[in-house]
Amino acid sequence: MPFKRSPRHTIGVEWEVALIDPETRDLAPRAAEVIADVQANHPEIHLEREFLQNTVELVTGVCDSVPQIVAELGHDLDAVREAAGKLGLKLWGSGSHPFSDFRENPVSEKGSYNEIIERTRYWGSQMLIWGIHVHVGISHEDRVWPIINAMMTKFPHLLALTASSPGWDGIDTGYASNRTMLYQQLPTAGLPYQFSTWAEWEGYMHDQDISGVINHTGSMHFDIRPAPKWGTIEVRVSDATSNLRELAAVVALTHCLVVHYDRMIDRGEDLPILQPWHVDENKWRAARYGLEALVITSQATDERWVSEELSELADTLAPLAEEIGCAEELALIPEILERGAGYARQRRLFEKHGSWLPAVDATIAEMDELTPPTHGE
């Protein structure tokens, strides 16, 4: 498929949220009813059924700035919350659920999803996970892979900021993002190969087509990938956040990084890149330790705490954020570093009470309590 070039650094976001029964705190497979209600009352809102029947995906249109994204998602979230409330349900945003049984969560009726389950069986059936996908427009396909490779050097930063899946099957896994470990079980998921040219990517996709891989899956589910149909780079690193405030921060960071690297190309500068084994190690460290991760920052294997890196990134990118209209959202990063990411908040309550129920309640409450900045108010 040819790359549909985007003349501007447009932005679009997909946010997966789930439905919770507030009595049991377990997941409720009633997304189809919620989506039908929203479509009947708010036809302008774009929602999608996701892999599981408990999940609603909020999909924005093509926007020019992060505040536009946040405003649209806020409008959509209100409608989904209202529809869920009619059914006595609450909204859940997190990388996974700490005790729900994946064997009791039915898959949505969609051919490609059934195909994935049939092909991947046990490993594919465990996908009780949710994430955030951020699309950023790119002007030419020759820029796509240099920017993706540069973005992979910031993989642990994007993950640590949002990691919110410490629990699984009732236990504390010890990981900040168990979602990350689960998702890479799929045969087409995980880290992208470090292609250097668009032609290499096209050759790879040609091979996947001939071998039948794309017929099985519809696409490659890399953590960061090109989206030729939209003319974007799609960043799929982050756990779903429990709230729109923290989502705004990671979307702003993603937007700023892509624009920053694209402008480096304009200036004729070399973009950063790490050895594949360093990228792989950084992914694991962020999934395991979250904001407490020590990450590799150079080809010479220098290391720094990811929290220090994030604090500096917020300062370094602040002028660019001001220029492209997301300064207030990027400025939320230090707040998350102070509060702790979602995994730490859930874990603290689990350790205090010996139960995930208080953690589920608190995470549900964050959807209402942690609201984004309101520009101009």
Main pleated sheet = 7 strands, antiparallel
Count the E strands.
13
Shape: globular
Broad structural category = alpha+beta
Helix content: 40-55%
- The total domain count is 1
Radius of gyration equals 20 Å
Alpha-carbon distance between the two ends: 44 Å
Strand content: 5-15%
SSE string, helices as H and strands as E: EHEEHEHEHHEEHEHHEEEHHEEHHHHHH
The count of helical stretches stands at 16
Q: Unreliable segments (pLDDT under 50, ≥5 consecutive)?
A: none
CATH class categorisation: Alpha Beta
| CATH architectural grouping | 2-Layer Sandwich
CATH topology: Creatine Kinase, Chain A, domain 2
Mean pLDDT: 94
Describe the structure.
This protein has one domain (11-369): Creatine Kinase, Chain A, domain 2 (2-Layer Sandwich). The protein is an alpha+beta fold and 377 residues long. A hairpin with a 2-residue loop joins strand 6 and strand 7. It has helices at residues 31-41, 66-86, 111-124, 144-152, 155-162, 178-183, 198-211, 213-217, 244-266, 276-289, 306-316, 318-324, 327-330, 333-339, 342-353, 357-369; strands spanning 11-20, 47-49, 55-59, 90-92, 132-137, 167-168, 171-172, 189-190, 221-222, 224-227, 232-235, 294-296, 303-305. Helix 5 (155-162) crosses helix 11 and helix 15 (342-353) runs antiparallel to helix 16 (357-369). This is Putative glutamate--cysteine ligase 2. ATP-dependent carboxylate-amine ligase which exhibits weak glutamate--cysteine ligase activity.
